[in-house]
Amino acid sequence: MSQTCVEVRSEWSIVAARQAGRTIAKEVGFGSVDQARITTAISELARNIYLYAKVGEICIEKVVEANKVGVKVSASDNGPGIKDLRRVMEDGYTTSGGLGAGLPGVKRLMDEFLIDSKEGEGTKIHAVKWLR
Amino acid sequence: MKPSVAKLIETKREIISEDWLKKVEEVRREHHLENISDHVYTNTNKEFVEIILNAVGQGQESCDEQLSGFTERLIQLGWPLSYLTRGLQTFRKVILDTLFEDQEGKGDFEIYYEVESWVDEIVNTLVNEYSGSWENTVFLQKMALKELSAPLIPVFEHISVMPLIGTIDTERAKLIMENLLNGVIEHRSQVVLIDITGVPVVDTMVANHIIQASEAVRLVGADCILVGIRPEIAQTIVNLGIDLSKFPTKSTLKKGIASALEMTQKKIVKIEN
């Protein structure tokens, strides 16, 4: 399956990642609401990379399973990692003075959400949105 | 350049330029320049080879000038830099092949060195010209972007509108805040409408900036109404769990203006005669 990866280094790569996500979401056949959900989720993940890890990568691909298709967004970085996974998934928890809605928001925007992080090693996040 | 090498190149000038013109046709195919007409392509190539070869006789300075003019034109026409660099690589190959063809001392290090530094000089000039023009373009676009960034427009007495279009990054967010607060004081606005119709994605950071901006507007004594929330944006805001209940919001600018007029005890009436 084709996969588009965007290296996140500056604020403008967030826009590039979003753009790539929108293109693939459109190709898969998502409506405008789900397109907005996917691009917003990508925006959150990319911004987290830019804010905390500085450098990382966002990959977007079409996934096909049994009788459904969807878009999978993977974010990975070798940044400082997340200390307390349970807390970052709580609404309103933030270490950067933001709204603290990013990660729990992404979980709600997407259908599947998987996070793996080790302190000092980095963070990996996979999120999938299925086409209904 | 050493006179001996220069003289050697001068004598072979015809052969070199002919050979190069032939080989450069391949470059054309590789770089998708087929849409350029044969006539233009041949003429440009001829001019290019003339300028490079003139550098041998006239010395670097006058050549630099010609080269600058030449590249400037190519940049304006949108020729890729790879055409020039590939062209020069081909040129170096051709020139070395030709010079060594009937030379006794094949692989003469001196000739090789002279040609090498000569071509490198030209490559440097070209790359500088190109990157300079790109930096310039990027700078100008950045300025243009900043200019259309976030104007606050007074539409009625005490009512102003700030239409936001495009991606909001940290720099723009700062500008929005500044323009908003300065504008509110300057125009003595009581109600400010922030229109986000043109903002493609509203994530937590954008929302946070808007919340902060309207909070600041409230502190200077005006009210903020968020307008232009598209249905899909409304859904993502809800999904993200962003609380905008503290702010009055309206779906369109029109409805926002209507309630702003109400808030400032104004009414638009049709004149009857």
UniProtKB/TrEMBL annotation, chain A:
SUPFAM superfamilies found in the cross-reference section: ATPase domain of HSP90 chaperone/DNA topoisomerase II/histidine kinase
Molecular function as annotated in GO: ATP binding
Annotated keywords: ATP-binding, Nucleotide-binding
Occurrences of domain Histidine kinase/HSP90-like ATPase (ranges): 34-127
Keyword 4Fe-4S on entry: no
Protein known as: ATP-binding protein
Organism: Anaerobacillus arseniciselenatis
TrEMBL record, chain B:
Organism listed in the record: Anaerobacillus arseniciselenatis
InterPro entries: Bact_StressResp_Reg, Globin/Proto, RsbRA_N, STAS_dom, STAS_dom_sf
Protein origin, superkingdom: Bacteria
Database matches in PANTHER family: RSBT ANTAGONIST PROTEIN RSBS-RELATED, RSBT CO-ANTAGONIST PROTEIN RSBRC
Keywords, sorted A to Z: Phosphoprotein
Protein name as annotated: RsbT co-antagonist protein RsbRA
All copies of domain STAS, residue ranges: 149-260
Sequence intervals crossing the membrane: none
GO MF term (any one): oxygen binding
